[in-house]
Amino acid sequence: MPRKAKEPEEDLNALGEFIRSQRELANLSLRRLAELAEISNPYLSQIERGMYKPSGQVLKAVADALQVSAETMYSRAGLWDETSAATSNTVEDAIRLDKDLTKSQKTALLEVYRGFVGNQR
Known about the structure:
Blueprint: H1 8-25, H2 30-37, H3 41-48, H4 56-66, H5 70-76, H6 82-87, H7 91-97, H8 103-117
Helix pairs in contact: 2-3, 2-4, 4-5, 7-8
């Protein structure tokens, strides 16, 4: 049976939830993420609440600030084919997106991985 297409509001809410969960996983405040992405705090808040669909440029800035691949962020925003994004995910993306891991498990795995590759924050 074909999958029912999501409504635009559902896409925006899902994108906002994804950004919020990645921000929390990175232990960043809304204000700090906005600073890192060089966007306004209120605008980021509205994105996280699903009120606005950000441009590709804003998504890239948020992805860079969160250390998530741009392809993953574009995929979540419906701007990138998920099958293409799945082939280009990083190890960190795989950890972040794993639904079987708890937030604390993801944090621990990210710290261990970054310790091995020398990519500490």
